[in-house]
Design brief:
Largest sheet: 6 strands, antiparallel
CATH topology: Neuraminidase
CATH superfamily: TolB, C-terminal domain
Strand content: 25-35%
Structural class: mainly beta
Number of helices: 2
Low-confidence stretches: 1-24
CATH architecture: 6 Propeller
Distance between the termini: 84 Å
Mean pLDDT: 90
Shape: globular
Length: 482
């Protein structure tokens, strides 16, 4: 037995070097490089951290990222909540107390109503305005529109009736009661594609009969009359209007009339997006909508449609988003009232190749959210929000979330992004509340054009300190009610 044990020991000694080559090497362990994207939770498959031109930030080293402090990435996740109401060309607004209002399209006889949530989109109710029973004060609306004045919290409901007459109604108590409908002025017919916004008055606009803010609306007059948007001004909160004027400079040819949503800035300027004859453009008024100047944003990436989306941030920077003829979204901003613009960035995340329905809103200085619908294979459309927390950076980081899972797509029309499509109609809308949370108005066309509101369940605050938002519960298809 002792001889056998000794023989085995000799054999093991001889083959040990060979075995060590098979089972391990005396090499140092390679430590995984720490990453700013190492969050406590895994990144969801519908959240993207990227730069322009589909550049995936997760595939870059720390040296390549070159992130400023204001670009510190935060774990983000999108979601949406159903409302139980249908919509068409959805617009939304949020008061300083957090009340969300959303347009509900009821058709002939019922009129457009406003639906309201006072618990961050979890529950919704119809707040009218009512004439009798469930009937609206305005019997029909071809284009519903709602806007919340950020300086006064007035909820402005703006309806276009039969392509001929527009009515303004408002609420100063979060939708509890409403004014009577006041007719807005008209020049040419048809009146179409109306949009309304407010702006703080300058020193030339003051008096006992003046409202705290100036209201301006613009409309497209269609084929009859001159091509281009016409605009009007109200100094008394929407009760009376001065009369429509051309929304472009004298002597400047216009090649399009349809336009994006109006937006006012803290510095007193008001803007709307519109294609000029040279490319996507911003039109600016500094006298309450009475005269306008034209500022082409980009001549290299022509817009595919009329929706040149503009937003302003707290520092009065102007932010623009449009979908170009290559079907992709482009972003640019201006710090001098539209006189000059940053180099356009293509802001779709990796894998998104077709987009439509651009919308944008500004938050704190240099922070912005933009929204659109997008897809990769021409049949399954999702709702996207992209966020930049440092637009001044040479190469800003973009955090993009889809508010829906890929299998829970919002529309299956092949060319939905470039044609009028279900509840999307001609446009969608995005805003940022006082907490800094973005909210996007969408329609779930697969589920009876139900109005849905997308948001961040988690992500960066776009106002105030740059810190994570308070997390909200996940929504999704189980919240749909129609």
């Amino acid at each position: 037995m002792r001889l056998r044990a000794f023989a085995m020991l000799v054999i093991l000694t001889m083959i040990a070097p060979t075995l060590s080559g098979c089972f391990g090497r005396d090499e140092p362990l390679v430590e995984k490089e720490e990453s700013v994207f190492d969050f406590e939770q895994p990144i969801a498959n519908n959240t993207f951290y990227h730069f322009s031109n589909w550049t995936n930030a997760l595939e870059m080293s720390a040296d390549q990222l070159n992130l400023s402090a204001n670009m510190t990435p935060m774990w983000s996740l999108g979601t949406y909540y159903g409302t139980g109401f249908d919509t068409f060309e959805p617009t939304i607004g949020i008061t300083s107390s957090g009340t969300i209002v959303f347009t509900n399209h009821n058709g002939l006889g019922m009129g457009t109503h406003i639906i309201r949530s006072q618990d961050q989109g979890q529950n919704w109710e119809d707040v009218g305005p009512f004439l009798s029973g469930a009937t609206g004060q305005v019997a029909n609306s071809n284009d519903p529109y709602v806007y919340v004045d950020p300086w006064t919290d007035r909820i402005m409901k703006f309806d276009m009736h039969a392509l001929a007459v527009m009515f303004v109604e408002w609420s100063d108590n979060e939708g509890e009661s409403w004014s009577l409908p006041f007719p807005a002025s008209g020049v040419y017919t048809p009146q179409d594609h109306q949009s309304i916004a407010s702006v703080p008055p300058g020193p030339d606009f003051s008096g006992p009969l003046f409202h705290e803010t100036i209201y301006v609306f613009c409309i497209n007059t269609g084929a009859q009359g001159p091509i281009g948007a016409f605009c009007d001004t109200s100094l008394d909160g929407g009760m009376t209007w001065e009369g429509q004027v051309a929304g472009w400079p004298n002597g400047v040819t216009q090649c399009a009339g349809l336009h994006g949503h109006l937006i006012g800035a803290n510095d007193g300027a008001i803007y709307r997006g519109n294609p000029s004859c040279d490319g996507p453009a911003a039109y600016r008024s500094t006298d309450g909508g009475r005269t306008w100047s034209e500022h082409t944003i980009d001549t290299q990436h022509q817009s595919r449609g009329h929706e040149i989306a503009l937003g302003t941030d707290e520092a009065s920077n102007v932010h623009a988003l449009w979908v170009a003829t290559d079907d992709l979204p482009y972003y640019s901003f201006s710090s001098d009232q539209g006189e000059t613009w940053s180099n356009p960035l293509m802001v779709a995340p990796p894998g998104v190749n077709y987009t439509g329905f651009p919308t944008i809103a500004g938050g704190a200085d240099g922070r912005v959210v933009f929204g659109y619908i997008g897809e990769s294979n021409h049949s399954e459309w999702s709702g996207y929000m992209g966020m930049i927390t440092d637009t001044y950076a040479e190469n800003p980081l973009i955090t993009t979330v889809a508010v829906n899972e890929k299998w829970d797509y919002l529309d299956e029309t092949e060319d939905c992004g470039s044609v009028r499509c279900g509840g999307f109609g001609d446009f969608i809308d995005v805003v940022i509340d006082d907490e800094g949370r973005p909210w996007i108005a969408l329609a779930h066309n697969i589920y009876n054009d139900e109005a849905i509101i997308g948001t961040l369940s988690a992500g960066p605050a776009l106002r105030g300190p740059l810190e994570p938002l308070t997390e909200l519960p996940l929504g999704g298809p189980e919240t749909l009610k129609l």
